[in-house]
Amino acid sequence: MNCFPTSKIVDDLCIIKSIHTDAINHDPALTFFQTGAQVGNRPSMGAWLSYGLGSENKNLPAYCVLLSKGKGNGQGVYSKLWSNGFLDSIHQGVQFSNGENPVLYLNDPDGMAKEERRKMLDNLAELNNEGFEDAGDPEIKAKIQQYEMAYRMQTAVPEVTDLSKEPESIIKLYGPECLVPGTYAANCLLARKLSESGVRFVQIYHQGWDSHGNLPNEMKGQCKDTDQASAALVTDLKQRGMLDETLVIWGGEFGRTNYSQGPLTATSYGRDHHPRCFTMWMAGGGVKPGVYGETDEFGYNIVSNPIHVHDFHATALHLMGLDHEKLVYKHLGRRYRLTDVAGKVAKDLIA
Fold it and tell me: Which of the listed CATH numbers 1.10.287, 3.40.1000, 3.90.550, 3.40.720 matches domain 6-102+161-349?
């Protein structure tokens, strides 16, 4: 049994039982929850926050993405989920890897000194500025910013991703797997460090939830991966005085039916996709702890306080200090928002 399960932090959680969405299959549902649209080439939520809030640390990206893989049936994720879409590419999520180099292609090639890299970037910036003066393409300026960011990240990333200096009390809090790169626990601890360093939006994807069979065994593994570390992240933020200004969101792209799919045996049954109602939780960031929303006795339909994905996005942006109706970007003659033309702030969720 985990030494610090989510049940220990329940008084800090806002548990929403009435989330509902439009799509029933993974690709459109994932895309919809991340971007507010079921089609591709739209900015992700993290990109919108980067666009609206900017960065607090000039040496790190405003939006970072961390991936881990669980023990259950894996459903893939893909880079369009953290895309900048039609926003400037500086707002794209930067994916961290669990290998020797946390951000790929960041380090200088063998034989290149730091001074040579600096001189090369200065010369490249001059050429790019000339290109901008000729073409006026804002993406050229974004590329200059990205090159400079990469240069600064060469120092900042190794420092922030080094977990070896964390005290024993923190290792015990998150569990021993937090010292294994690429695990959910390690990513939760890294998320705290990134947030502490001024990164605006950190997103963790933990794969392995697509259990259409073998549900009892697969869910045990998934919950073991996530329970202690999720509770630890909220606890760690709270003990550092960061929870009030950090919004933690935990959930998926849709729910699961509460009845069996396949043969009903002790070890084999599963559950199918269910977009009509599902549960998520939030903590910190000005959200009100408690339980919100209600479903029918079968857990099939919502009977009170429905929260659509657009409403959820509007509420999350509001908690981050942004008006979802004013956070717009004009593209191809149309004004786009994360919430498209819908979304209402759920004021009852705000402390």
Answer: 3.40.720
